Amino acid sequence: MRFRFGVEGDLTAPSEDRLTVGDPRMADFLARLARRLLAPAVARRHPELGSLGYFLRPAELKRSVERMTARRDALVFPRGNVFHLPPANVDTIFVYSWAISALAGNHNVVRISSRSAGAAEVILDALNETEADPVIGQTQRMVTYGHDDAITAELSRWCDLRVIWGGDHAVDTIRKQPLRPSARDLTFPDRTSWAVLSVPGWRAADPAARRNAVVGFANDAYWFDQAACSSPRTVFLVGGGADSGEVRAEFLDLLLDVVDQRGWVVDPAMAVEKRVNAYGLAATGAATALDFPDNRITAVTLAGTGQAPRRWIGAGAFPFAEVDSLLDLVPAMNRQDQTVSHFGFTPAELRAFAVELGGRGVDRIVPFGSALTFGAVWDGYDLPSEFTRLTTLQA
Amino acid sequence: MSVFSLSQADREKRLLPQLVDLVSHHRRHCVRYDRILTAAGVGSFSDISALPWLPVRLFKTLELKSIPDDEVFKVLTSSGTTGEVSRIYLDKAAAATQTRQLGATLQTVLGPQRLPMLIVDTKSILKDRRSFSARGAGVLGMATFGRDHMWALDEDVDGLRSFLVKHGDQPFLIFGFTYLVWLHLYEIAREHGLDLGNGILIHSGGWKKLVDQAVSPEEFRNRLAAVGLTRIHNFYGMVEQIGTIFLEGPTGGSLYCPDFADVVVRDPETWAELPPGKPGLLEVVSTLPTSYPGHVLLTEDLGVVHGVDDGDWPGKRFSVLGRLPRAEARGCSDTYRSAA
């Protein structure tokens, strides 16, 4: 067991140290951490830490605390002990879920994957270098341990809330360890995300707006190798009819240009991976055409909206399908679908789409460029409320 | 009769029309292959490097065959690094051709007779059903080219001595995985002064374990020469082209293509063919696969062509440099894989 943050010692021992909801000691700590992450040198090297720092800045934290404490029908308290199992490969997720939980005043234990690297290491350094009230070290612990079921079991019995990221397999595996009867899981299973592009909206946009849209889309898609749960996979071209092909071609040209400028590269194994998956889609009839304009972009023409793949098929692999209206997409969406990022639609069109979905699928509808922006409402959960508990009082 | 006889120009002249026919044959008989080629929009094939290739891993994710179910005679499987398994479907004719051509290739260095055979492995690998498909199948396949088999890893030094007393004054065949030959046969032979001078060693299985011990192919060859073993042939092959092996020439250092096969090295960035001297992804080409579309396969191995028509045998002379490192996917999944 390697302690990465917090005071070393028995993780499940009872503690007298208590934080409150929105505890000023924690708010101060997070604000100082944010300043470190937003330092120009750090943000330049790891742009994703810029978004994280932004999320942790005081104004944002204040809003979260207000959301936790705004209610009049109940007193709001920390949920208690929270055990976090964040994903190994998205270096910043562990901070988001931990920070909201910490701000809610919980005792937290975060299991940091031994495979964590890069940005995660920078964050851990920043955490340890940030001056903290002793109570924070006593109540907030981050540890790395191997695949030790005994430790996971003990922490599972200890916690009031267990937060499991990392997809269906992780959820199923960790759920083999029982919780206390009063405890529960907050799970983040496998998700799929999409992009929708209005062809008339694209036509109406000027060249600068088109280019901005593609820059945003490129960040959404390439930042985490298109493998974050909110990264767009299939692109649906909406309402274009005969114009769709031309818009798609222009979109791909711009995308290639942006990818070039960013200097993003796709390694050979990923390029092969994309071929394997694209050929697989063609072989089974799900795709009718494959284009490989460049190693970093694979464009796949789907046979229909129902054929859009729900599993990851590689970085820079974009299936395309055409529909007449956003509402035509509704039957193809399901519970697994998380983020729809959009360009060129009116607010009314987007609202009608959301209403028609009726919560049966899609948790977030956001503009191109915001797909990876973490929010306190995630996967359909209001996290500040998940991390707190309510006491009602009738005098 | 050697199967290492064709110059590169003659090889291409002979293979290209056969391969073009195979492309049409598989398009007619394997609808999935046809759909892939249609979707990818392939054109005409003016030379071997222009032929449409399939990533070899596709055989792990997809059933691809060009024969009806009731003509499937044998299904070959391989264990993969990620637990995925390739499935290769052979009909009777294809199975016979594969065996015949593998035999013809080996006869180039073994001669026409079945030789007494020392297998550098343990018989128990044939009992373990899990490893059977990979290492066991290789051993089993090769065992048919020898006689009076002895399993070296099941024997102590006296067992090996008695094999050599009985067969050591005539040519005999030694087969095993490269690192087992090194760790067991070589060590024992050196320690006990065994004379392997009439042995012909056929070995394969990658160099990774030896590279970890800092043993280069050259050193492997030199050290074995010290125990008398000078006829050494490494080979490169895979279950997806089971009858086609690329064999190391007598003087060592390079692999050669049999007359029914060829290799292409591709730039993994542009996918264009690379000239000799430039390492890239290795593509293996063979006219043997008739029952499944495995005639042009892009491997996940890196290789380099050293020269053309300038070695022990005619055609391309190349080396395998190791596996392409697997892409490490980022993303939200895969947090917590149980060790079990």
TrEMBL record, chain A:
UniProt entry tagged with the keyword NADP: yes
Pfam families in the cross-refs: LuxC
Keywords: NADP
UniProt xrefs under InterPro entries: Ald_DH/histidinol_DH, CoA_reduct_LuxC
Domain of life: Bacteria
Keyword NADP found: yes
Protein name per the record: Acyl-CoA reductase
Provenance organism: Actinoplanes sichuanensis
Organismal lineage: Bacteria, Bacillati, Actinomycetota, Actinomycetes, Micromonosporales
TrEMBL record, chain B:
SUPFAM superfamilies: Acetyl-CoA synthetase-like
InterPro entries linked: ANL_N_sf, LuxE
Signal peptide annotation: none
Residues of the Acyl-protein synthetase LuxE domain: 4-336
TM segment ranges: none
Pfam families in the record: LuxE
Name of the molecule in the record: Acyl-protein synthetase
Organism name: Actinoplanes sichuanensis
